[in-house]
Write a structure and sequence with these properties.
- This protein has 259 residues and is an alpha+beta fold.
- The chain folds into three domains: 67 residues, no CATH class; 82 residues, no CATH class; 70 residues, no CATH class.
- It is 42% helix and 14% strand.
- The strands form two sheets. Strands 4-5-6-3-7 form a five-stranded mixed beta sheet. A two-stranded antiparallel sheet has the order 1-2.
- A hairpin with a 6-residue loop joins strand 5 and strand 6.
- It is elongated and about 75 Å long.
Length: 259
Amino acid sequence: MPPEKDWRAPSDEAGDDALQYCDIAMGYLSRNTRYRADYTLTLRQVEQGAISADDATATLVRRWGISFHAAPSAAYDRKLIVARPDLSPASVVLVPALPGMEAVSAFDMRTLGAVRARMKIGGFLHLILADNSGDDYLWIWGSPDQPMAMMLPIGSDPFARLVSAERLCRRLNGMASGPPALRPPPFRRERLLTLLQVLDGHHAGASRREMAATLIDDDVRDFNAADWVESRERKRISRWIKEAVELRDGGYIRLLRGG
């Protein structure tokens, strides 16, 4: 789990130029005390040999929708994020091609390039494909040594899934994959990262006035009691805390879809 740090410093996520919505979603969940306890217990079970890292990760992903990979050798690696493919349009699902599609050639795993991680999640082989613009997430059902087809669920974030599929196609053809579909625009990115700081300050027991002074306007330190109570800064920081807590406690699922 990310180590505790001074909430006044920018969050660790802020330094990632390839930040995607799934990375931010994981940032919120990783600050959820129930998830932290669940992950820590699961990691201990993996270390004791009671369960494999992949099976443990599958359980966490079913329970929370997204999780860090529960591998003791790579604990807390922010790039080892696994999200349920039905919740995350950034995921591309490959399945065996239908009978009669003889023109489709066998899938060549060597064309995938750099693979950051390989996991067995339920019946799927899950691959995280390293990319400087934002990693790709590939789920393969069945043996990949055969003709494969992409599965694009109808009515489930089709356009974002099409962009993810196009990125994979470009990768398979040795081309630059381009930016991912679900990378937040600058304003949205800044707001979500600010709310992570608000959440860290809230967890650390910082007062609303201290958070407002640090994140909005330092002048609020000089407000008298009446001015502070009626200030826009106090009302704004209260709204931010409510929003940040909601994202931590379940709203992070919306972020997987860019919401």
